[in-house]
Amino acid sequence: MKPGPVLWNRDALGDTADEDARLALNACRTDLDALAYLAARPWIAIPAFFSITTQDEGILPFRPWPWQAEWWRSATPREMIAKSRDIGASHATVALAVHRMAFYGHSVLILGNREKTAKTLLGFARQFIRDLQRGLPGLLPPAIRENTTETAFGFPTDGQPRFYILALPAGEDPARSQRAMFGLLSEHAAVQWAPEAWAGFVGALSPGAMVISESTPKGLAGHHGTMWTDSRNGYRKVLRDWKVNPNHTEAWATERLRDLGPTKFAQEYDVEFIQSGRPFFARDSIGLAPGPPLRADDVDGLGTVSIWEEPKVGPYYGGIDPSGGVSDDCNFAVHVILNGDGRQVVEARGRWTPDRFAAVIAPLTKRYPGLHFVEEENHGHAVILECRNLQAVGIRPWQTGRGDNRTYMLDRWELALRRGHGTIRSEDTVNEHRVFVYIERNGRLRAEAAPGKTDDGVIGSAIAWQAIQSTRGASEVFAAGRSMWETEDF
Known about the structure:
Blueprint (H helix, E strand, L loop, with lengths): L9 H4 L5 H9 L5 H7 L2 H8 L1 E4 L3 E4 L4 H9 L3 E6 L5 H16 L3 E5 L2 H21 L7 E4 L3 E4 L9 E7 L10 E7 L7 H10 L1 E11 L7 H7 L6 E5 L9 H11 L1 H7 L9 E2 L15 E5 L3 E5 L8 E6 L9 E8 L5 E9 L1 H14 L2 E6 L4 H10 L5 E4 L4 H17 L7 H8 L1 E6 L2 E6 L6 H16 L19
C-alpha cells in the first residue's frame, strides 16, 4: 500500500544517521523502495517515527540510548537479554516487535510474567502503532479488533485479521491457536512454572519466528538461569547493567546501593545471578573454565562421553557419582577424570542403568589408568560389582555420606578451583558448581545443589581432586581415622 505524507522525528535521529538515511526517509513521500530501506534498518525507523511517554516531560521522540540502537542493529533470531532495571529494555524490545509487525506483516505474541506487565507492554506497542499511523499513513491496514489483550489489523471485507499483536500473562498454554512470527517473553526469571510457560510460549510461534527472552536475573537455579548458562541452545546472550543508562551516575549507584543493600542491588542493577542460597563456589573461581571438548561421543542416546585430552602419562584420577535419577531404571550418572595436575580430561554424563554405566566406565579406566572412585551411595554398589566383572582398572569404593569427610572434601575442592589448582572444562559440570549453594536444613547450613538441580559433577570432581591430594601425602580425610582407600596401592 502506498504511504501518505511522512511525518518523521528528524531531531530524534541526532547524529546516529548518515545522509543516506535522511534521504531515504524523505523519499518515503513518494518512493516505496525507501520502505524496504526502513524495514531492514530498525535503528533508523524506530527513532524516526516512534515516541515514548516520560514521567517528567510527557511524550517525546524515541531517542535511543547507544545500547538500544546497537541491539537493534545486531539482534539475532534467538535472543536472551539479562538486564538491569531502568535501562529501557522493555521499550527497545517492544519497539522492535512493532517494527517487525508493521514493515513485515509479522504477528506478535508478548508474554509478561503477570497480567500487569502484559498490559504495560501492550500500552507501549499501541503508542508506537499510533506513531506509525501518524508518521506513515497507509502503512498499516485498519485495526479491525481491539481489546484489553490484542490489536488486530486487516480489512473488514477479508473477515480475518492479516496480523496482530497479542499480549498475555505467561501460562502453560497462553495461545494454543496462535502462530506468531515474533515472540517476546518479559521477566522470564519471574515467571511461575517457567518451563511449562516457556513450552507453551514457543509452541505458539511459527517455525523461524524471532524469539526474545528479557529479564532481570534471579539466580541460576531457575529456568531462565538454566537457559542463560547453556551455550548449546542457540540463543545469543546479551548482558546490560545499569551503566548503559546515561542518566545513571556513580553517585546515583551509591545512593541506590545504600537503599537496597548489596545483594538486591547486585540482582536488580548489576545483573548478578544471585542464588536463593549463598553460592558455595566463588563465581570468579579460576578453575571454572568451560571449553569445547576435542570430541563428544553419544552413548545409547542416553548420555555423552566428552574428551578434552587424549591419554598421556598417568596416573589419572576419577570421581564417579551414580546417583538416583527419575526412576530406578534410569539413573543420572557422572564420571569426571582429572590428570595429575587437577585438569579435567574426560567426562561421562548421562542417564544409564548401573550395568550400562559400568560398561561406559570400564574402557575409560583402561585408557586413563589410575584410581577411579565410585561413590557407594544410591546405586554405587551395583556399579562397582559390574565394573569388576568387566575388569575395569583401578576401581575403588568411596563414601561421602560422613559429614566430616564431605565437608573437608568440598572445602579442599573449593580452594583448588578458586586458586586455579584444579580445572573443570565441562560446561554442564561448571553450571552445577554455579548452583551449588548453602541451604538451611534444621537450623544448620548445608552445601548442596539448589532445589531442582543436580550436583553429581560437583561430587565426582571433588572426589577426584581428593584422590590426587591423598597421593601427594595430604592430611587425613576423615576427622577420626584414615579413609578406606588412602592405604591402598595402585
